[in-house]
Records
---
Amino acid sequence: MTLLKVDGLDCRYGLLQAVRGVSFEVAQGEIVALIGANGAGKTTLLRAIAGAHRPHAGKVTFDGEDVTRVPAHQRVARGIALVPEGRRLFPSLTVEENLRVAVAGGRRGRWNEQTVLESFPLLQARRKLPAANLSGGEQQAVAIGRALMSNPSLLLLDEVSLGLAPVVVDAVYESLANVITEGATVVLVEQDLTRALRVAGRVICLLEGRVVLEGDARSLDRERVVNAYFGLRSRAAGGER
Amino acid sequence: MTLANAIVQGIFLGAFYAVLACGLSIMFGVMRIINLAHGDVAVLGAYLAFVVVEHTGASALVAFAAALPVMLALGYILQITVLERSLKAGLLTPLLATFGLSIVIQNVLLIVFSPDVRSLGPAAGALTSASWHVTSELSFSALGVVVLAVAIVVFGALQLFLSRTQAGWAMRATAEDADAAELVGINSRSVYARATAIAVGVAALGGLFLGIRSVFDPISGPTQLIFAFEAVVIGGMGSLWGTLLGGIALGLAQTLGAEIQPQFAVLAGHVLFLAVLIVRFGGGRLTLRVAR
Amino acid sequence: MKVERWTRTSKLFTGGSAVVALALASVPLIFDPDVVQKLTNLLILVILATMWNALAGYGGLVSVGQQAFIGIGAYGTVFFAGLGVSPYVAMLLAMVVAGALSVPISLFALRLRAAQFAIGMWVIAEVMSILVRLDKNLGAGTGISLIQMNQYDPNYRQAYTFWMALGFAVLFLTALFFLLRSPLGASLQAIRDDEDAARSLGVRVASRKRLLFVLAGFGCGAAGVLVVANTLFIEPGSVFSVQWSAYMIFMVLVGGLGTFEGPILGAILLFAIQTTFTQGGPWYLVGLGAGAAVFALVLPRGLWGVIEGRLGLRLLPVGYRVVSQETKTEKKAQVSA
């Protein structure tokens, strides 16, 4: 069953077009990785799905309903949660407060303050600390936990590895694996190709705002992926772009 | 007046300024808007209470209670017509739009109420004049004590609101990162409207105190705005308790200045304000960076 | 493809402006002293609007306290005249003092952020007002007259004042005009459009802003000088009043913030309103305030911005235009200034 459908999405910043005519679908229970170089439009696309960016044209359908005009805070109530690029925790609020402030959606489910803290045990001791005092990895854990507090049916993750040491990223992805239960629907943006291909079931590659490659993560030829990522013409296909 | 008396009066005066400044501080803290019509909103509150007193003979407190809902409604209208729009426009727009609004409020009040000075003192009964004589030279006015108590309660309540309630956390979150707040389900529009409502309500309270402790007329607004802003700056912009302390510091500066020469009162406050700005933001080598 | 500064219209208009200025010089010879006095007021408004626009429109500095310099100009004149200096020389001196004082004030004021700058300047004006009130030699709270002007015949005095006003107006408009056309001007417009981007390109934002601030100090000081020369009596309550800022904000917002011609249009408009509603009073002030607020929120480019946009009109060549030759027609894409 299709949970998310993006149709001909066109997103701009003033005159700059960041997302050009992007269309794809995400079925319930899928884990899709959005890959692409910096500036390819991945963050903008995620933000448009989450409602933080008004598209210039195109449609976003979630759970059968057109949500293109629905503001971000209402999409949370409907079940879309975005873990933004750069964590974006509220610095002076404690870990607890960062989590508690995110229940406004009012959705019921597996996740509440207690279960979130249980899933990220390293946060237990830091509950009462202001978010600004945490390390990068801890902040990322809080950011993910905060998104989970609304019990989303679609979880969007934007570059959770950004600015973190590889060891820390490993730990984050390990927690993610525990957290993403069977049947959870996830779209994640990841610059690290290897990790993306390992975690996801399907891969969509963006280049300069357009979808240039889409396919099953296991069966895609790695060279093809790399070529699409960098916009290189494939030698074998002789000039295909 | 002895020094001790001047200090006591300074603290009482400062508490009044703190109440005036509270709303300004909230609006700035949450929305980064300085409402140049803030003083006029306070004066408007005083006039509304005055109207109730004139027509019903009620006490000042009851009149305030009646005026408050009207003020909150006006605050909501202010939010959706002027402030929300200003937020989306440039940095200059809120200052310019609220300045224009200030002129409008003053002159509408002039048209409706004439330039005569008014007072809510008569409607406040014993509160206006009662005082305790602690020593032969030192006395505490009942009004001063009440204003100080109310100031502490108001600031305390706001602090509790911000640190213990869902709506309070939402407000702090929106103040720090409105975009991220939206992404976790917080309706920033509602948060802003709530902040404006609180600001207008407390401003009206300031207007009530203004009317009881002295007189007011349609153009009293700008003076109150300047005092409120000075209190906010002296105490540190963005800090709620800072605004209370800033108000008290301003009050003390004025009463102690008056000790030197009665005409120096307001000037002493201005000098303190400018001195704080110079020290905080420097002129040349004297820059002291203030941690945010 | 060429980059041009002058269009036919702007050549016509600039030439026309010079003619207009010369024509205006003959006003005192044609009209009664009352009319001349009124037109002097118009010139005062033009200067104030231009200066406030220089600050806010080109420097991004919203000041609600320029009346400080108006007051320095006015009271400076009275002060120097009181020392025995010939009145019109006293006026020039007072203007220079106002400009000079803006330098040390700028060292402190320009470090302040938006609201603090706006209200900080206002407080400075209030401080000056209080200091004047405490000084009996300057008339304290009741005010003081520029009695030294009595040595002149009223008709001549009005004429001299008008010519001085015209001279100042031409001076400051020309100064701003050349400023905007110079490389300095390009950086000023960059600051106006995006301060951080300009700074990252190496534009020395601080010194540019200081230049505008000092220019405005001279300009508002000149306006203050003209106020006392025109009305002969000043008091702190009116000359240091925040009402002046209200006028400046209205003129520039309605005329067109950040455009060269806009403030002049705004000044003419305010002058027309003031002359029509001579009863003045609260009603027209409500209109001014509401007008300023509405324009700030809804029409940020002001009336001139709208005219410019609709007609593609640029009367004075302060911007650049890209002109490309395509087949036989010229497509002109105007780069906004």
---
Amino acid sequence: MNEILCPNCGKSNPPEMEFCENCLSPLQIESTSEPSFENTQPDWLKRVRERSQEEKPNTPPLGDFGVAENRPFDQSLTTGETPDWLKELQNSEPPQKSETNEPEIDWITRLHEIQGDSNQSRSQSTTFYSDEELAAMAAARKLEPKANSVTDLSSEKPEEETNLAESLLQGPVQQPQDSELSNNKINFSQQNEIQPADIPQSGEQVFEKPVNQEEESSPWLNIIPPVENSIDLTISEQKNGTDLVFSSNTQPEEKAIHAEVSKKESGLPSEEKSASPLSSFFDLENQERSTGGAIAFEESLIPEGVLQPQYSRAAEYSGRLEISESQRDSITLLKSMLVGEIQPKLPTKLRSKFSGRFVRAVLGVFLLVTMGYPFFTGFLLMKPVALFSPGVVAMRNSIASLPENAPFLIVSDFEPAFSGEMKAASMGVIDNLMMKGMNFTVISTVPSGPALARDLIKTMRPVTFSYPPEKVAVLGFIPGGTTGLQDFIRNPRLAAPLLDGGAYAWTYPAAQPVKMIEDYVGVLLITENAEIGRAWIEQLHNSLSDKPLLMVVSVQSAPIVRPYLDSGQLNGLISGRVEGAMYDRMMDSPPRAAIEMSSYQMGMLLAVGLIILGGLYGILKKIFRRQHVGSTEDWHGG
Amino acid sequence: MTSLENLVGLMVVFLTAAFMVVFALQDRKQNLSFRRIPALEKLDRAVGIAVEDGSRLHISFGWGEFLGFHGASILTNTALLEEISKRSVGSDRPPAATSGNGTSTLLAVDVLQSANRHGYINERMDSRRGRLAGVTAMSYAVGVLPALHRENTSTMVLGGALGAEIRLILDAAEDEQVQVVAASDSLTGQSVAFSSPVELLIGEEIFAVPAYLHAGGMYSASLLAEDSLRWLLIAIILLGATLRSIGLQIL
Amino acid sequence: MKAPIATLIAILSGLIVLLAYFLPIPALMGISQLIINWAVSLSGVAMLVAIISLVASHWQKLQQKRNPERYSILVIFGFFLTLLFGVVMGGPGNPEFQKVVTQFILPVEAGLLGALAAGLIYAGMRLYRANRGWMTLVFGISTVLFLLLYSGIFTSSLDIPIIKEGLGILQRLPDAGGRGIVIGLALGTIAAGLRILLGVDRPYSS
């Protein structure tokens, strides 16, 4: 069968294969000028390969698991032991110049160059060597027995790819003069110390083998000597033999790999041996290998099985993870720590023993009991009011000056929550207006306003003596807040054409005489909201001319509204329940809600007392805390 | 309104507009700087923290009427909501808003939908995130409480019209340990918030929120315009008081 | 609506209403009145939409898978019952329907106000936690003073001139501070409105 031998590893492959089964290199080398690899192989090499195929098993393909070689790294090599193939080489004719071969692709595929007795042929390569390759070479040199004879490797033309094996067998190669050395210097220490004489003069880069390196490493790394931390460029010439020294250069065009090849005894002249401390594998400056003589290897190359990646089948472990108790505890602790980390904690505030809800509930109960006491017992806390505020007096005077049976506008803009206070504050005013027989038009910018106004009017007059319905026109709710208010002020009939019941408003007896806002003899605004009060005041200010604008507000709005009274924009102001009672007193009416007033006053006094107590507690707490800190410092001070 | 008052009013409006334009042009040349407001600095920080820890920011628009006095604070809260929405990109819980008025509810929903369209918010928009809480003051305050109890809110901005009922919200926020920035435009609300250990914006500081959150150069310019007008007003008031005290009733 | 058109409408509307407020030109005032009417009507419609949105949000809360809010069913039930009652009764003008306000809403809100009062007292008791510096002390003292003032204790006393003068002065104290804050708010409102008029602030555009 016409099989094809791989030019790279030498393995035989079927003829139809394009790539080698072993090393995947192409089998068919398309080269018109170059002869086939088979034809260019020297006879000795062929014999060596055949013998190695017979003697040793095929090298496992790269990447397969292989058996780790247990050869110790620093096993000293016996000298004087020459392999058979080398002996044959010594007896064979000098090698011929080989043609250029295809360049190597990567350094792994060029391992054959390193291994003397491997099946792979020594193909030529123009690719520069990497650090790993040079280290492998150095290691191979150390492991293999030194060659007694020089294997003559033919050199090629400078511009062609050179054969590594041939260059190794040649004599020392001159150093490139203009090579620049890289800064990456790897220094291998050797078993034998580097003698000062071994150190090259020029700045040449070498690798030196490490000595007594016992650090743990993978089988692959065991082959390559470990690197010392300190890197220095030295060139060493080994006393006991040849150390292939390698250098690497990061600049490809100036990369010069210097190798020192010790000469065989029968090889090169001694002066060359001593005069070539640095040798290079490839001469980039086209130096021909002048000598076709053999270059003796003091050491043989590392066998292929050693340099190939030593993979070992991984030990089989059970899929179940065995966790010890201490590890379990650590896991639990870590989990709890991480869970806490997920939610960022807000700064913890100092919380009192009792929750806020509980305290508020207790306060509420306390308030209920205190304020409910007058209802159950009829207890009156204070005497009737004796002083009258200016706003109450102005209110009374303004109402007294109003004509009777005239249209009067009531704006009911208070919320249901404040209905109690607003009722108590405005009852006297409404009553007074009713006594004058006013025709009320009720409007509101709050949705619940009309209902509350009706309730207010009904409260004033019981059903039996109810105020005539035709004298009350409830226009309902105007949406739009201040804008709706302004709309109503500009044109009431257009803004609120209907009553809240759906009938047309402006034919209703109470509202019929009104065509503009100025037709009302007065306006009473009942609200707890200061902003609504201000809006009505500011919008009505110029529209009412000399008509009185009266307001009944909540106590909370009084500070905002009172300046309008002082400026004359407001003609009467009653703020809160107390001033409503003032108005009743002024009108010589009996107190409408004395019990409620007493309850209200008791609640206010309770609030005052609790706030004072709370303030004192806070002050004392701060004082004692300061003192506590101070005493601790004094105690431990000095 | 008398003609003099009309004229003064128009002058104030045009003066404010002029100040705004001038300061806007100045802001383009050099960034205008403002005094420190700790509450706004904490709000700025709270936005980032809320995004990082996946909690929600809630903005309360208040129950005030948009077509009234509270319209300005509602517009400010709208700008705040827009800015927070932009900063909440990638947040697990996008911001929410509640309001007590129809117009402001629609404004808030529009801002949130716009943020959804622009991709600031990935969560599908639904009515729970921009809703009407209540139409009266008390009902609004109660309607806001579920946002504190159930919606994983970490920070709440209480803006708009909120009076004494703000106390209910502050108590619930304290129970739930929610950080609050009180920015009510009501004097009563500001007074009630003053008694609590919350971040408080007093007076016109509520209108400074967009400028401090770097929502745009015009907000900074309008802030400076307000400051300038305030100083002018102070001068006029002092002048008028002085003239009145010596018997001259010019102003 | 496209952003430039919406902006133009907003600016024109605002300018017309503003100028009509200051310049009593009849034509301008007529257009301003029309715009205000539209705004008021739209405000009512917006409230209706917001109320529907409120019902929808409660419905979604009821249906949410995690922690559904079961009390929302009460809200929805109460809403539709009140709506039905109002439609049947003929609207908010019906005195019977108005009992919804007086018999339900009023007591509920009054109760809330009572809870509010308890909360305010509690906050007043813990005023020292506010950390406002010396203003905390001033705030506390003024709180106590005005609670006593508005409780009517001093008005029940005898007609003593010094008490009357003192009460008058005390009542004016918060007026000045409140007025200052309100002026600041008004200036901010002017600036906010002008941002709309200048087209800078466009909350309506998407």
